[in-house]
Amino acid sequence: MNIQNYINGNFHNPTNDDWIDNYNPSNGEVYGQIPNSTKEDVENAYIAAKSAFPSWSQTTLEERSRILIKISELLEENLQRFAEAESKDNGKPISLAKAVDIPRAASNFRFFGNAITQFASESHESIGLQAINYTLRQPIGVVGCISPWNLPLYLFTWKIAPAIAAGNCVVAKPSEVTPMTAYLLGEICNEAGLPKGVLNIVHGLGTTTGQAIIEHQDIKAISFTGGTATGAHIAKVAAPMFKKLSLELGGKNPNIIFADCDYEDMLSTTVRSSFANQGQICLCGSRIFVEASIYEKFKKDFVEKVKQLKVGHPSKDDTNIGALVSKPHLEKVKEYIAIAKDEHGSILCGGNEVTIEGFENGYYLEPTVIEVPNDDCRVNQEEIFGPVVTIMPFNSEDEVLQMANKVKYGLSATLWTNNLKRTMKMSNELQAGIVWVNTWMMRDLRTPFGGVKASGVGREGGFEALRFFTEAKNVCIKY
Ligand code: NAD
């Protein structure tokens, strides 16, 4: 199936006729072609967005809201089709795409369709000076949205929905590894009555198409989710051009387990926070620290549960772990397992590729638990982004806090304890944008979302996203 660019409400081949193979991770086969769009395609998308902006930015909030909510409803009506496409493109179990990815993409549109009707700006009365200030929140113009492969439609729409709700027009690029659902979104937008040119989707490699977006003189803001190295590169290019930047980057999140936690709840959630989506979620708790008094019990129970996870074809209902997203990614994850062995880690379970009958060339890997001798090893410091977690014991709050914070990343942290004072102290001191206590990945879309340190700059979610996608202009009137 060939994918096309979605520009000005129509579908187009890339101008230079350059195509990239699209792989199905469950069987390793090429099942379609993706445009490798050039500067010219990005320019066409920009021109369409620029032409649509005057009218879209003046569209009433009620009308914008109605269209966004219609997109959300159409995604829900097409749940099965989108979930199948996401699973085929990414390798994730279809059950996950149906329960998480597509419903969340629909929620993104519904949420920002509602949020824009509640978004207000400030007013400051300068008492004694007989003046009043009010702040306008004006759309920026044409903005760029670039997203990764792990939660393809979920993260793509997490950017697009607030951008267009705020009155901007968009040039967006999904990951070239998982472009399918972004392609299908174009049809839905047309059906929902989104005016031509408000959203434009160009496909291609980061180094060609992505680069053309970030370098574009008149694309005034970039919302990016992806790896830390790519984020640094984008900042280097876009910051001197004074573009607004939101960077949601990598993570190496600690999952800290105290003996006083609700054990069963912690255990089942920890299996999920370790291996959901084959461990390819930026929020996965990939470093598990366990209080020494329950370490041996946890180790035995956790490994037993992980061994029960079924690695299988993504389309099967009983599959817990599908395929990794690509061959190069599988190789990268396997390399880290080899590094762990070199670093004297012990593989408690997993560590091997899995062959699924009939799909022998798919990218399957056992969920892997590695006991590490210390926190400084590479597998505890570098983002692996696959079905691999490390475990090690700790003896005190201070010790675990120090280890938790001793990475370059700071996206999220999970804490399992019933001790209130400890909860307050550790939540304050953990270097992360998000701290979950006695839960994981519980999301309220109104909350600020983002990381500190090498996990990024800026916050998405709720009004934070609407603030990012608008410029504040203060007007001071003396009376
Ligand atoms: P990536 O950085 O390789 O690619 C992300 C996107 O950037 C893709 O669309 C890619 O084509 C594009 N890109 C690459 N080079 C570019 C360039 N020079 N200019 C413009 N765009 C360019 O990341 P990935 O491998 O797709 O995704 C995995 C990473 O994403 C992991 O590090 C993960 O932690 C991170 N991630 C972060 C969050 C978060 O919210 N913080 C969420 C999901 C994933």
TrEMBL record:
<dbReference type="InterPro" id="IPR016160">
    <property type="entry name" value="Ald_DH_CS_CYS"/>
</dbReference>
<dbReference type="InterPro" id="IPR016161">
    <property type="entry name" value="Ald_DH/histidinol_DH"/>
</dbReference>
<dbReference type="InterPro" id="IPR015590">
    <property type="entry name" value="Aldehyde_DH_dom"/>
</dbReference>
<dbReference type="Pfam" id="PF00171">
    <property type="entry name" value="Aldedh"/>
</dbReference>
<dbReference type="GO" id="GO:0016620">
    <property type="term" value="F:oxidoreductase activity, acting on the aldehyde or oxo group of donors, NAD or NADP as acceptor"/>
</dbReference>
<dbReference type="InterPro" id="IPR016163">
    <property type="entry name" value="Ald_DH_C"/>
</dbReference>
<keyword id="KW-0520">NAD</keyword>
<feature type="domain" description="Aldehyde dehydrogenase">
    <location>
        <begin position="17"/>
        <end position="475"/>
    </location>
</feature>
<feature type="active site">
    <location>
        <position position="282"/>
    </location>
</feature>
<dbReference type="InterPro" id="IPR029510">
    <property type="entry name" value="Ald_DH_CS_GLU"/>
</dbReference>
<feature type="active site">
    <location>
        <position position="248"/>
    </location>
</feature>
<comment type="similarity">
    <text>Belongs to the aldehyde dehydrogenase family.</text>
</comment>
<dbReference type="InterPro" id="IPR016162">
    <property type="entry name" value="Ald_DH_N"/>
</dbReference>
<protein>
    <recommendedName>
        <fullName>Aldehyde dehydrogenase</fullName>
    </recommendedName>
</protein>
<dbReference type="GO" id="GO:0006081">
    <property type="term" value="P:aldehyde metabolic process"/>
</dbReference>
<dbReference type="InterPro" id="IPR012394">
    <property type="entry name" value="Aldehyde_DH_NAD(P)"/>
</dbReference>
<keyword id="KW-0560">Oxidoreductase</keyword>
